[in-house]
């Protein structure tokens, strides 16, 4: 009985792993098949080719889209790290009038779905001439109420003793923040980096509204338009998805420990 | 603890966030409310006319909105429980003493890092008429479908895809919850002769309640805001006879295709109220359960 259960258990474990991997593996494989071989189930390794990749790279600005994605996701991440951390620290540690009110506002707007502000912000950016510009992609997204909340919770849970000792030693508030609090906040900063970068790298709705010419597309927008309009064959389409997927997979595999911890710490208790 | 100059420092630290929240969130929320009570076109914002509640009342007579709301509810109702069940099961598995559990954690988490657009393209390929899924079904003697073009199966196929993509994220949050349960509880239960099932039922599950609550809320909010997958898969059309049209999808289309921004804003606020209501109900329910 116990043995049967054990076998069953491993069937589930391995079965789900296979289910997870098949879409990736099958897509990679198809993206490496030449067009005549595309619908064949088995193809010898020797006839696999990179021709789909070279075709789409020469015909479409995938590298440009990749760079746009990196610029936007990078800038938004850096901004969030800086601003959310400063605010989270102040809301947790510095006493000033109005801090309670600010915190309640942060909590309240966390509940409002992004689609509520999508229309007014779009109109505003259009009036400023920020549609199809990097500042339009970046500036409205430089802070996040969830990020502020997360950092505040983290600093609240940090013991004050060290900061008090530093104060007695004559460090200013800025010194305390940069020399004591920030180094201690590394795990929370890592979690936030992952969240912001991943979220913005994969973000689709906003960039598809804000980008109106294909040299300003981010990867998801570019991939979507490529998939709708230009694609002739599935093997090329799937080669396109690899531009989106492979960089993130590499980052994930390199930092998987941090990734998994990062997601776990965001499930704040 | 106080230092000299704390007042100025405090305000300076929160300044960027306050400005950003005011300009890109609070101002726009108020403006959106204004728009939702007007006939408002993006093409002629100066000619906005007072609409009273008509944008809101129109929603409930609009068969497309009803369809979108129905699809979204069905999607949420299908995805949320299955997602939580699988996430918990996977978390229990990779928290147990199996061989290579780090590897399995990594594998199960993998889909979470991929973009919805890329995943949608991959799944369209897998689920197409002569795709891999149908190939297996036909080999097993099960009837095949043109999944994403089928009236019955388009929505369930997207649901399956959503579960596949996000389960890993919730698994990891459960894993963190599991590691917070004091081991003594299990040891005591073992002394009392509890079966594994009883340990799961009377220790693990109740101790995971806050985690489950968090996941439930995240999952519902996420499913009610679904857009990317439906948009990509149906090429912006909403699927056969609007079968994959969701609230956010319809909102997006009303605002940026029909330029009826008053109507779209009313929809956004209805979506907000639904999410708020569901969250409040859950909070109440979970409080009663734990008392």
TrEMBL record, chain A:
<feature type="transmembrane region" description="Helical">
    <location>
        <begin position="65"/>
        <end position="89"/>
    </location>
</feature>
<comment type="similarity">
    <text>Belongs to the binding-protein-dependent transport system permease family.</text>
</comment>
<protein>
    <submittedName>
        <fullName>Carbohydrate ABC transporter permease</fullName>
    </submittedName>
</protein>
<keyword id="KW-1133">Transmembrane helix</keyword>
<keyword id="KW-0472">Membrane</keyword>
<dbReference type="Pfam" id="PF00528">
    <property type="entry name" value="BPD_transp_1"/>
</dbReference>
<feature type="transmembrane region" description="Helical">
    <location>
        <begin position="137"/>
        <end position="155"/>
    </location>
</feature>
<feature type="transmembrane region" description="Helical">
    <location>
        <begin position="101"/>
        <end position="125"/>
    </location>
</feature>
<keyword id="KW-0812">Transmembrane</keyword>
<feature type="transmembrane region" description="Helical">
    <location>
        <begin position="7"/>
        <end position="29"/>
    </location>
</feature>
<feature type="transmembrane region" description="Helical">
    <location>
        <begin position="238"/>
        <end position="260"/>
    </location>
</feature>
<keyword id="KW-0813">Transport</keyword>
<dbReference type="InterPro" id="IPR000515">
    <property type="entry name" value="MetI-like"/>
</dbReference>
<keyword id="KW-1003">Cell membrane</keyword>
<dbReference type="InterPro" id="IPR035906">
    <property type="entry name" value="MetI-like_sf"/>
</dbReference>
<feature type="domain" description="ABC transmembrane type-1">
    <location>
        <begin position="66"/>
        <end position="255"/>
    </location>
</feature>
<feature type="transmembrane region" description="Helical">
    <location>
        <begin position="176"/>
        <end position="198"/>
    </location>
</feature>
From TrEMBL, chain B:
<keyword id="KW-0813">Transport</keyword>
<dbReference type="InterPro" id="IPR000515">
    <property type="entry name" value="MetI-like"/>
</dbReference>
<dbReference type="InterPro" id="IPR035906">
    <property type="entry name" value="MetI-like_sf"/>
</dbReference>
<comment type="similarity">
    <text>Belongs to the binding-protein-dependent transport system permease family.</text>
</comment>
<dbReference type="Pfam" id="PF00528">
    <property type="entry name" value="BPD_transp_1"/>
</dbReference>
<keyword id="KW-1003">Cell membrane</keyword>
<feature type="transmembrane region" description="Helical">
    <location>
        <begin position="74"/>
        <end position="94"/>
    </location>
</feature>
<dbReference type="InterPro" id="IPR051393">
    <property type="entry name" value="ABC_transporter_permease"/>
</dbReference>
<keyword id="KW-0472">Membrane</keyword>
<feature type="transmembrane region" description="Helical">
    <location>
        <begin position="207"/>
        <end position="227"/>
    </location>
</feature>
<feature type="transmembrane region" description="Helical">
    <location>
        <begin position="12"/>
        <end position="34"/>
    </location>
</feature>
<feature type="domain" description="ABC transmembrane type-1">
    <location>
        <begin position="69"/>
        <end position="282"/>
    </location>
</feature>
<keyword id="KW-0812">Transmembrane</keyword>
<feature type="transmembrane region" description="Helical">
    <location>
        <begin position="147"/>
        <end position="176"/>
    </location>
</feature>
<feature type="transmembrane region" description="Helical">
    <location>
        <begin position="106"/>
        <end position="127"/>
    </location>
</feature>
<keyword id="KW-1133">Transmembrane helix</keyword>
<feature type="transmembrane region" description="Helical">
    <location>
        <begin position="261"/>
        <end position="281"/>
    </location>
</feature>
<protein>
    <submittedName>
        <fullName>Sugar ABC transporter permease</fullName>
    </submittedName>
</protein>
